[in-house]
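Researcher: I'd like a candidate sequence for this fold, 266 residues long. If you have to choose between options at a position, lean toward the conservative one.
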C-alpha cells in the first residue's frame, strides 16, 4: 500500500478546545486502497481526527491534504466537491429517524447528484443489497431495525455516492461477536470489489487482526506509531503493550493465527 501516493496527508495537526489540547503536531498518511485501523485510549481524539479530515471540525493548526489538495486553500464549492468523495458511517448510524431506509439513502443522491427520485431509489436499493440487507428492508424505519441492520443501513448510505474514502467510526460497537465478524468480512469484501480506501476507528481487537492492513495508534496527542499490526504490537509503549499483549489482545492474536493456519491448510 505504501508504494502508492497517500490519498490523505495530515501534517502537524493541532486540535484544542479552550485550554484542553487533543492533538499536537500529529502526522498521519492514509494510502490508496488500504484499510487503516485507528486505535487509542478514551480521550485520545480518534473521532476528533476523523471530523477534522472530513471537514466537520476546523483544526486549530496544521495541514490536511486530501487527493493532493490542501483543504484550507479550497473554496467552499471545491471543498464540497472533495467531501462528496467521502463516505462516513457515524458511530450511532445517524440515520434520519423520520425517513425509511430507501429515503435515507436516496436523499444524498437527489441533493448532490440531482437525480430524479425514481433513479435515486433504484440506486438506493442496490446500495442496500451491497450492504447485505434484504429487499424488504427498504421501507423500514430505523426504529424497526436491529443494531446490526442499523449499521448496515448506515453503511449503505455511506456508499450512496460511490466514495473513494470510507470513514467508519466504531462500526462494530454494540454488535454481538457473530454480527461484528460478519460486518468485518463485508468491509473487506467491498473494499476488494470496489477499490475504496478505509479509515476505521475501532476498539475491537478482532477487527484489527482480521480487517486492517495497518494500525495507527493515537497516544500522547499524536500518532505514536502507524504500521502493520505485528510491528505495532511489538512497540515499547505501556498503553500499546497493555492493549495488544493483555488477555484480550493475546486471544485475538491466537484466533487470527489459527484462522490463517486453517486457510493455509485448505
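Model: Candidate sequence:
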Amino acid at each position: 500500500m505504501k508504494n502508492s501516493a497517500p490519498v490523505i496527508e495530515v501534517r502537524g495537526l493541532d486540535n484544542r478546545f479552550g485550554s484542553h489540547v487533543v492533538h499536537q503536531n500529529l502526522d498521519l498518511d492514509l494510502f490508496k486502497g488500504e484499510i487503516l485501523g485507528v486505535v487509542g485510549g478514551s480521550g485520545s481524539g480518534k473521532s476528533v481526527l476523523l471530523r477534522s479530515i472530513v471537514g466537520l471540525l476546523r483544526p486549530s493548526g496544521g495541514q490536511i491534504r486530501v487527493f493532493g489538495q490542501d483543504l484550507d486553500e479550497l473554496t467552499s464549492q471545491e471543498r464540497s466537491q472533495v467531501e462528496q468523495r467521502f463516505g462516513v458511517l457515524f458511530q450511532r448510524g445517524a440515520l434520519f429517524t423520520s425517513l425509511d431506509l430507501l429515503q435515507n439513502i436516496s436523499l444524498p443522491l437527489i441533493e448532490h447528484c440531482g437525480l430524479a427520485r425514481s433513479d435515486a431509489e433504484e440506486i438506493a436499493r442496490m446500495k442496500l443489497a451491497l450492504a447485505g440487507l434484504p429487499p424488504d428492508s427498504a421501507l423500514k424505519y430505523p426504529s424497526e431495525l436491529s443494531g446490526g441492520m442499523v449499521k448496515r443501513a448506515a453503511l449503505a448510505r455511506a456508499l450512496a455516492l460511490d466514495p473513494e474514502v470510507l470513514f467508519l467510526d466504531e462500526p462494530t460497537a454494540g454488535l454481538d461477536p457473530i454480527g461484528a465478524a460478519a460486518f468485518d468480512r463485508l468491509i473487506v469484501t467491498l473494499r476488494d470489489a470496489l477499490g475504496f480506501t478505509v479509515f476505521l476507528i475501532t476498539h475491537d481487537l478482532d477487527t484489527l487482526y482480521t480487517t486492517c492492513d495497518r494500525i495507527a495508534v493515537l497516544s500522547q496527542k499524536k500518532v505514536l506509531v502507524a504500521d502493520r499490526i505485528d510491528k505495532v504490537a511489538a512497540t515499547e509503549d505501556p498503553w500499546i503493550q497493555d492493549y495488544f499483549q493483555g488477555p484480550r489482545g493475546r486471544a485475538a492474536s491466537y484466533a487470527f493465527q489459527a484462522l490463517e493456519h486453517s486457510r493455509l491448510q485448505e
